[in-house]
Amino acid sequence: MKFSANLGFLWADRPLPDAIRAAKAAGFDAVECHWPYEVPVEEVSAALAETGLRMLGLNTVRGNTAKGENGLSALPGREDDARAAIDQAIAYAVAIDTPSIHVMAGFATGDAASEAFRANLSYACAQAAPHGISILIEPLNRYDAPGYFLTTTEQAREIIARVGAPNLKLMFDCYHVQLMEGDLTHRLRALQPVIGHIQFASVPDRAAPDRGEVNYAHVFGVVRDMGWPTPLGAEYKPGGDTDATLGWLKDLRG
Ligand SMILES: O=C(O)[C@H](O)C(=O)CO
Ligand SMILES: [Mg+2]
Q1: What's the structural domain count of the chain?
Q2: CATH number (domain holding residue 97)
């Protein structure tokens, strides 16, 4: 199995280029992040070139976080802001050769939000396609993000079908899916054609995957048997020194 370190959480206490180097030293096969925009692309590119790791994904900005915004693309009336965030993410992704962008929906509900989200996703997919970039949408759980527009894989699957763009995919974060829907391995297999990236963390505490209610040794085996080709994203909160939480990776590596 190959694993990607999500640097939004792992080594988040270090500057992003140093976090990339730490992921390499720890044996990860790739990295991904949340919001890298404060860091000059030259610094990130240099760290990626030095380590040989690829940055697999990044997120669109959340918007006005002081006001509690958590994404813009499902907010009716905020299309200009949402598309500026999409443009920004594509430009950054192109500069560091990142193959996928998570377009964040935001806190919203109702038909107008659905229409706004689909229209902004169509825009994102059209802008990203010439660069070979996939657009990801990710259901978030109702405990961490109450009121978030996108909460289930079933909802995501319907949106993906209605938008109808080949580069629109599902971010299957096992942590969120377990909290909202469960039945992880059936869902992974059934949704494989629309999944663009897989992430994981223990449930319910979002820590390293060697604890909690999900048996990740089993889940990883199912993903391997599916022939899943790309690294799985370790997106968990280490709660201190990241290196001290990597027993699961060492055990898997043997
Ligand atoms: O929280 C998550 O699971 C996401 O993957 C994210 O990108 C930030 O909300
Ligand atoms: Mg996630």
Answers
A1: 1
A2: 3.20.20.150
Give Rg (Cα) of the chain: 17
Ligand 2 center to residue 43 CA distance, Å? 25
Q: Is 29 in the pocket of ligand 1 (CB under 6 A)?
A: no
Tokens of 193: 């054609």
| Sites in the chain below the pLDDT cut of 70 | none
CB 134 within 8 A of CB 167: yes
Contact yes or no for 200/179 (Cβ under 8 A): no
ipTM: 0.96
Question: pTM above 0.95?
Answer: yes
Q: Are 159 and 150 in contact (CB under 8 A)?
A: yes
Angle in degrees, CA 207, 213, 215, rounded to 5: 90
- What is the helix (H) or strand (E) element at residue 94, kind and residue range? helix 79-96
**What's the rounded Cα separation, in Å, for the pair 87 and 142?**
28
Write out the residue range of the structural domain in which residue 184 sits: 3-253
Ligand 1 contact, 32 CB (< 6 A): no
Instruction: Calculate how far, in angstroms, residue 63's C-alpha sits from the geometric centre of ligand 1.
Output: 14
The torsion angles phi and psi of 134, rounded to 5 degrees, stand at -90, 145
CA pair distance 34, 91, nearest whole angstrom: 15
Q: Which of 132, 117, 125, 219 is nearest to 173 (CA)?
A: 219
Could you tell me the maximum CA-CA distance found in the chain, to the nearest angstrom?
52
The tens digit of pLDDT for each residue in 106-150 reads 999 999 999 999 999 999 999 999 999 999 999 999 999 999 999
Could you list the active site residues? Answer: 138, 235
DSSP-derived pairing of the beta strands 100-102 and 232-234: unpaired
Question: DSSP label at 25?
Answer: H
